Known about the structure:
Oligomer: single chain
Helix content: 25-40%
CATH superfamily of the largest domain: SPOUT methyltransferase, trefoil knot domain
Number of domains: 4
Number of helices: 17
Bound molecules: 6-(benzylamino)pyridine-3-carboxamide
CATH class of the largest domain: Alpha Beta
Shape: globular
Amino acid sequence: MKFKVLTLFPEMIMDGLKTSITGRALENNLIELEAVNIREYSLDKHGKVDDYTYGGGAGMLMQAQPVYDAWQAQVSGRKTRTIYVTPQGRLFSQAYAAELAQEEELIFLCGHYEGIDQRVLDEVVTDYVSIGDYVLTGGELPAMVMIDAISRLIPGVLHNEESAETESFHRNLLEYPQYSRPEVWHGQKVPDVLLSGDHRKIAAWRMEQSEKLTRERRPDLYAKYERQEAVIQVLLGEKRLHIHMIENLRRGRGEVICWKDRAVCVYDPDCRLGMFTVASGRDAASQLIEAIPQNILDDMRFAVTTDIAINRELADRLSGDTIRITSEGRMACYTQRTFLPVKYKDIRLLQEADQEYPASHWEWQDADQPAERIRAKAFYGAYAEDRLIGFCGWLSDGRIGYLYVEEEYRRQGIGTSLEAFCINRQLEMGFVPYGFIPKENEVALKMQINMGLYLSEGCIWWLERS
Ligand code: 4FD
């Protein structure tokens, strides 16, 4: 990731980010940072960059010309995402940070005085962003806040790779309190349960604390959390059929969009996937689809449903577009907590250099998907004498799939080992592993049962819009 910051105070940016974890990331070239001094693009002999506002009113405004020239000197051809930090922006959040972390390059524009001439903003800014409802003397601190939040999501920046994913703000709960040595400080003892060594009890205590803290300090988040838990309870009524929805919510990915009785829609904005279920009947399906806000529907690219009535209603509401059923089948889930045996030994994480192999041995939805999955450390390869002979992994929606083994290596348990390997990795992350099996794939269906997975009784449909 390359960050460029257009500012009147470049040393403030460099000094602020050169220490601690962002500093280490800079040294290790995991991120690049360049602070560009807007004043150097002033055509005025005194380096003036501000002037009075037309129409009167207090304060000075940064002029268009130096800002535009500084920006123009940074962009290479195509329009780079340019963020103007302003109290009038869209509120920055963990989800927004995650979205921006996908970019290769970001330009931040920092205003001073009363802001910047609107005409240059209209020409260069792609995102107006605010870090909260308060006014600061300049945009530098908000830019640094955002750069920090984005940087820690870049693979390798945090040393413990998992920590960025499983921390605060997932599942709408605040982090529980933590304690370190000494056991007694200022007469206060560390809670006994944390010294018990009983991991189940500790997890339950932490959960209780998270709930209590969220209820007290963030009633808004707590309301979301309660609703989500209630929906999970409903979905658990038919766990195997709804495993993708349950896991999507539990893994902190999607959000409950609508819910009435046993009709639920969950939307995962990262993979632009809508997940729908109803108990039965065309009426419930029609009400569910009608209740989905237009902006969600506009964004949606894929859908998973549990009823053909939903498919019809979706097709009706998206009348202008073609909705294609790409697959019909069942969910398979592994509900035990014990690791599966992995008989084939040479299974390793796929490397960026390997991406051509999965790219050419599977029909992926997008050309950059194999590389993206490898970067996410979600795909594993089976090797024979150092040559790749198969792979398996999980997709961005979380389901395990895309299992492939080369012809001459089949029927030796390598596919089973690959899938078992992925299941074990997901168990380590605290997930309930699951996958989708198309109904015509009898070999795969048999394999799931042999491995101890359970199939859903009901059918699942995958839809794609074009
Ligand atoms: N809440 C924020 C961003 C910038 C800022 C400025 C117009 C003032 C707060 C444009 C007016 C920039 C924020 C500089 N204060 N101050 O994110």
